[in-house]
Design a protein that fits this description.
Elements (H helix, E strand, L loop, with lengths): L3 E6 L2 E6 L10 H16 L5 E6 L3 E3 L10 H13 L4 E5 L2 E3 L1 H8 L2 E5 L3 E3 L13 H7 L2 H10 L2 E3 H6 L5 E3 L2 H13 L3 H34 L2 H11 L9
Helix pairs in contact: 1-2, 2-8, 3-4, 4-8
Family: Belongs to the enoyl-CoA hydratase/isomerase family.
InterPro entries: ClpP/crotonase-like_dom_sf (IPR029045), Enoyl-CoA_hydra/iso (IPR001753), Enoyl-CoA_hydra_C (IPR014748), Enoyl-CoA_Hydratase/Isomerase (IPR051683)
Pfam families: ECH_1
């Protein structure tokens, strides 16, 4: 059973997270399949750009708590998106939580419908948004991140665009993306690759500087008794004991 759908139209490869049973959570298997699909696109001269989207009403629910990828595996996936010599465009029509927000931040362009909602829910299960901060911190408003990282509040697509998590939001995400994809199809592959390298240099600096520390921190937090209780409470649909 494949977890990544693939389709192509006029040089744009669409990769769809296709694991609706767990709301497209980042399992080890899904992360591996997505990495393989991106590598295929990088080598394919007929692919000008990649659209990353989803099936179901959730783009990505974050880490799969029953089958999570190793922290370094998620770091490698995020870096792969950032380093890919072709633009990666996120197309979101559903909800995004925790690690899914790291995928959005790694993409070069991200658009969502106004039906989408967003939340950094890590603090509510006793962990922190560690490795996803590698692409998020250089690209997103720091004051807004302080609020949403610390509270786990849900916010909408216009707010996500305002703080830099999204490029744009609209009622019809495909209408929003139509001129974007047209522009990418009109652009020379070499020009796109070099321009993307200019744009991602600061993001890659954060990977070089902080990836090892944040990977170790993620592993430590997820292995803690507090996180085990938080994840158990989440899976049992109850409040953890620290809720006042």
């Amino acid at each position: 059973m494949t977890l990544i759908g693939r389709a192509r139209a006029r040089g744009v490869e669409t990769l769809s997270l296709d694991s609706p049973a767990n709301r497209n959570a980042l399992s080890a298997a899904l992360v591996g399949e997505l990495a393989d699909a991106l590598a295929d696109c990088a080598k394919d001269g007929d692919v000008r750009a990649i659209v990353l989207t989803h099936t179901g009403n959730t783009f990505c629910a974050g880490a799969d708590l029953r089958d999570p990828p190793p922290p370094d595996g998620l770091v490698q996936l995020l870096r792969q998106i950032v380093e890919l010599p072709k633009p990666v465009v996120a197309r979101v029509t559903g909800h995004v939580r925790a690690g899914g927000l790291g995928l959005l931040a790694a993409c070069d362009i991200a658009a969502a419908s106004t039906a989408a909602t967003f939340a950094f829910t890590e603090v509510r299960i006793g962990v922190a948004p560690t490795v996803i901060s590698l692409p998020l911190l250089p690209r997103t408003d720091p004051r807004a991140l302080a609020r949403y990282y610390l509270t786990g509040e849900r916010f909408d697509a216009p707010e996500a665009a305002r703080i830099g998590l999204l490029t744009a939001a609209g009622d019809d995400v495909d209408a929003v993306l139509e001129p974007v994809l047209d522009g990418l199809r009109r652009s020379a592959p070499e020009g796109l690759a070099e321009t993307k390298a200019l744009l991602t240099a600061r993001v890659l600096e954060s990977f070089d500087r902080d990836a090892a520390h944040l990977t170790a921190l993620s592993a430590r937090l997820f292995a803690s008794p507090r996180a085990r209780e938080g994840m158990t409470a989440f899976l049992e649909r109850r409040d953890p004991p620290w809720v006042l």
